[in-house]
Amino acid sequence: MQTFDDRSWHGRIYVLSYTMFNAIPQIAPDRGTYWCTVVGTTVYCLVAGAIFLTLNVATLPFGILTKPVWQPKARFLLLHFPGGIPIPPIAGAIWLAYVTYHIWTARGPLFAVGPWLFVAGLGFFFLGVAMLYNRLRGV
Fold it and tell me: Which secondary structure element, helix H or strand E, spans residue 64, and what is its range?
């Protein structure tokens, strides 16, 4: 058993591994436990950082911010405009309009507006068929 220097880079990672989970670090760990903890925490932080970056790249265009997983109580935050108006509904509508415009220019109006009309039309059609079927059955 030996004590560790918490001013070195690996000592700070060792202390971080315990403080991330609200635990008290061991004062004198054996060498294997110490280095396994340092390597494990390093891998955990690298994977968590990659997940954090990926999530933020995917959610920020829709007005949602992810907090880092290594902070306590990590969660998703909805961003708001200066009047308290939430960004996600407006950003979603803007992205849908943008995509529809580009599909219109690339493939034409049937491909751009067709899915909107076909989904709604088929939804109402199948709802009507289900209602007619139930009425004929006497339910």
Answer: strand 64-66
First CA to last CA distance, the chain:
77
User: For 24-54, how does the pLDDT look when each residue is reduced to its tens digit (9 = 90+)?
Assistant: 887 778 888 888 988 999 998 899 889 999 9
Residues 77-128 pLDDT 10s: 899 999 999 999 999 999 999 999 999 999 999 999 898 899 999 999 999 9
Q: 27: which residues sit within 8 A by CB, 6+ positions away? A: 3
- For residues 58 and 47, what is the distance between their CA atoms, to the nearest angstrom? 17
Under 8 Å between Cβ of 22 and 72:
yes
H-state helical runs in 3-108: 9-19, 31-59, 87-107
How far out from the chain centre does Cα 49 lie? 13
The rounded distance, in Å, linking the Cα atoms of 42 and 129 is 59
CA separation for the pair 74, 49 (Å, rounded): 13
Contacts of 100 (CB under 8 A, 6+ apart): 112, 113, 116
